[in-house]
Amino acid sequence: MKETWRWFGPRDTVSLEQIAQAGATGVVTALHEIPAGEAWPIEAIQERKALIEAAGLEWAVVESVPLHNDIKTRSGDYRRHLDNYRESIRNLAQAGIHDICYNFMPVVDWTRTNLDYVLPNQSRALRFEMADFAAYDIHILQRPGAAEDYSADVQARAAERFGALSPQAREQLEKNIIAGLPGGEGSYDRDGIRAAIAQFIALGEEGLRANLFAFLNDVVPVAEEVGSRLCIHPDDPPFSLFGLPRVVSTADDARALLQAVPSKANGLTLCAGSYGSRSDNDLVQMAREFGPRIYFVHLRNVKREPDGSFYESDHLDGDNDMVGLVGALLDEETRRREQGSTLPAIAMRPDHGHLMGEEIGRPGINPGYSYVGRLKGLAELRGVIHTLSSLRS
Question: Global pTM?
Answer without folding.
Answer: 0.95
